[in-house]
Design brief:
The structure holds 2 protein chains of 2 kinds.
Chain A lengths: L2 E4 L12 E7 L4 H17 L4 E7 L4 H6 L4 E2 L1 E6 L4 E4 L5 H7 L5
Parallel strand pairs in A: 2-3
Antiparallel strand pairs in A: 1-3, 2-5, 5-6
Chain B lengths: L2 H21 L3 H8 L5 E4 L4 E4 L1 H11 L5 H4 L3 H8 L3 E5 L4 E3 L7 E5 L3 E7 L5 E7 L7 H4 L8 E6 L1 E7 H10 L1 H27 L2 H16 L3 E3 L2 H8 L3 H13 L3 E4 L2 E4 L2 H7 L3 H9 L1
Antiparallel strand pairs in B: 1-2, 3-9, 4-8, 5-9, 6-7, 6-8, 10-12, 11-12
Helix pairs in contact in B: 8-13, 9-11, 9-12, 9-13, 10-11
Classes of the chains: A alpha+beta, B alpha+beta.
Amino acid sequence: MRAKKAKKSRAGPAAMTVVVMRLYIADAAPNSVKAIANLEAICKEHLPGAFKLEIVDVLEFPLRALADGVLVTPHLAKLSPSPAAKIIGNLSDRSNVLHALGIKQ
Amino acid sequence: MSATQSAQRVAGERVANGRILRLVKSGPEREALESGQVDAVLDPETRTAFLLPDAERALSAAGGPIANSLLAALPREDYKGLLGELESLTLSSGEVLYEPGERIRHVYFPGDAQVSLLIVMPDRKALEVGLVGREGMVGIPLVLGAEVSSVRVLVQGSGSALRMKAASFREALARCLPLQRELYRYAYAKLGQARQTAACNRFHQVEARLASWLLLTRHRVRSDQFHLTHEFVAATLGIRRVGVTNAAGALQRRKLISYRRGNIRILDRKGLKAASCGCYEIVRNLAS
């Protein structure tokens, strides 16, 4: 794993739901760098303290990515809450990402 | 790159493209691929991931030596973080990057390109007030919160550079503290250089100023040999062409430089330093 970042809700038991995501990238290739920056910006604005993100570099962990059904990078997988969703590409289409993550605009 | 290497690369990319299209047949993956938003593809047969040609080129550029000193001074992770927004291009001599009063659209980090900053007077006469090479960046107003260029920016020597859109640059500057630090230091050095030059122009003899300026150019291009026309040197030092001829002739007679048809070679660096007005040392120290 190239980088790992986890943030937990600080709001106590009645807290908002934590969105769990996994982002598959390829080292510091341009679209991967953009996807990380775009996702961080979205999380900072819409999910402060309420998300958990794991970043997997497929050049280092191809078997894991293949086992998770990943075909190309960048690939963002929303794992929970259900429904699960995936978004392919550099995540520059903000409304598409918000919709897939179940965030109301 | 030779013609054979180039042909090999094209053939290699065609094979890679065939493999990519076989693996990514449809769905959102194919859409992202077609819109240029994919970096790597996973191959279940070989159980490996491979990079697309563009991503591979960008990564090999990131792993290789960094031509621009400001970018090279950044921690590698910070530099990699900027790569997604940096576009590689070749600047051609005579190309104008900004006109005075024009909104800045891109900042430029020269590699081996040389770019000069010119003040254009109402009578259209221009004076060179700064030269930017691999040690610097073009677009300092954006670092200091202005959006418009006050000078004409003209490419003097063709060569490579990286550029970034103004909006992306502002974001990068806000989030990347090492970049901020490098650029503030650079902006301060340029301010110091402008002050020093104002005093130098007022108090020092042309011959000594020319010697200083040649030493600075040598430092910037990292070579004892470079090409500069009489006209350009005259515009830089704010003197007439005949003044350049006389001063260069004097330095040549002392066997410090040779100067033929714009080709300058520094023959005796120590001697040239002794003949310079000393502003060279001050300006160099500001930059370090």
